[in-house]
Amino acid sequence: MDSFYAMRAAQILYKASRRMAGVAEAARCLSLALTQAPQGGLAVHVLALADAFDDQDRPLWKPLDLRTFPAAWGRSPQLTSALIERQPDLTHCHGLWRYHVRACSLWAAQTRRPYVVSPHGMLTEWELRHSFGKKRLALWTYQGAHLRGAACLHALSDGEYRFFRRMGLRNAVCQIPNGTYLPPPPSAQPKAPAPWAGNFDAGRKILLYVGRLNKKKGIHFLIDAWAAAVRRKAPGSNDWALVIVGWGQFGHERELEERVRGAGLTRSICFLGPLFGEAKLAAFQSTDALVLPSQDEGLPMVVLEAWAHGRPVLMTRQCNLPEGLAAGAAIGAEPSADSLRVALESLFAMTNDQRQGMGARGYRLVEERFAWPRAAQQMKAVYDWLLGGGSPPSCVRLD
What we know:
Helix content: 40-55%
CATH architecture of the largest domain: 3-Layer(aba) Sandwich
Strand content: 15-25%
Structural class: alpha/beta
Shape: globular
Radius of gyration: 21 Å
CATH class of the largest domain: Alpha Beta
Strand order of the largest sheet: 3-2-1-4-5-6-7-14
Largest sheet: 8 strands, mixed
């Protein structure tokens, strides 16, 4: 490819706001890192459907060219037209099951140019079991054709790659994990009060959950596990409090709050709702450990963020980060009340030095394997290969 030619890559997703949580955050961070990749020569355009939070979240995308378009009944011909008009050399489609998938397919049919698909954990056994009829119908029609037509699929983990193959998808697959950015040293960070200040007795250690509040995340198992540890008077259990941060879905937050009240845990568990910007940063700075009890994940950015802040993590193996367990940066569990209780009791029994050592191992892991510049360099190599040919980069799997 001519070194003076700037490749045009469109990033397309359903929503570019906080409404899409980790998908939007991953697409945003990857897009920004791609424009800063050392190879250069890449112009990134971002297109999505409009959302009520666009005005609040648009500044986070700067200096990228982010355009959002209105939709009616979930469809937006304007999105499709804008993608075609921008004439990208390649389109990268983030997420599944929504109209942006159709827009990408229409663009590809008209231009015969390649596209990459990042399901971001939306194509798993757990996901397919929920809304089973709608998703199976989609796979038989537009969504299945979209996946099969991709020049390359993007897997966040080895588990996601293996599921692609079990689904019968024979496309090239680039296996590139999500990343995060290492924060500035603590001395350079603003001193903000913990968002839960005043909710608990002074001196309590904090276990933090950050994410959507739905059944997939396994928070109900975590609450039951917490109740069991308290009933058993596990050593250290009275020294800890659980802070649940996130956006409720399908009314699940009300079920969780009732579960906490029914177990008599309102003095050790609190719900803060979603946190953004400086408030979210203050939560990571102030917490003692992070928990993610999910039944299914692609590759959770919140765990990487905790490690970037040097915090230990308690997570289920379904979070698809075996590297963290192997490195001793996390305590592993299964998504069940019994398994999570055992893991909680292990955390409660740890000394400050042991927790700090676990957090330090997580920080090194992010430094070495999960930084956005590394992910962007690999993705840029995939784009170059799809457009220029030659041997596939080392992150691409053809088997």
